[in-house]
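Hey L., structure's done. Input below.
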Amino acid sequence: MAIYLIRHGETDANAARIVQRPTVPLSARGRVQAAALARRLAAVGIVGVASSDLNRAAETAAALATATGAVVEWDAGLQERNYGDVRGIAYADLPEDIFGPAYAPPGGETWERFHARVDAAWERVTARAAGTPGHLAVVTHGLVCQRILAAHLDPPPGCVVGETAWGNTCVTTIDGPTWRRVGTLACMTHLATVVAGARA
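Output:
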């Protein structure tokens, strides 16, 4: 069995390089991406979906659930890092690098708190996967994928963890029963003939 770790589809805020608010929905392009993802995974044997409950992830998960017949379970622990008061601001207008190791957003989460939350969510995911008679899809966000790869997976040969590009609707497969071995990393082949030039 495998876990399919998936980043949500694109939003207008992604395209405009704006720190996202929780309520931001998929853009028209993001909905096309989610549909392509759903077609790719419709017949691989996904029987369950765990998803962040933020709108952009929830819409992506809904497309996947429709294609597979799997039931979605929402897990707030899979949400993107809470950037608090800087949400809604363009990256170009920020006074410092919000991805820097010491950055603590006003009104948001420190890296330590974010990492602890994701680690706990991943523990729930792997426990569910171990008891699932088929593959489990996990729909989440770029920084969550990055944390899972860095802290819980064995990167494939040649992978530089901090340089992995988590494109919208990218798929990473993780094999059981140890849930550490990466099969496919951040794969976006389902977008090749659907959305030209998909952004990373």
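The helical segments are 12-16, 28-41, 55-68, 111-130, 142-152. The first helix runs from residue 12 to 16.

-- N.
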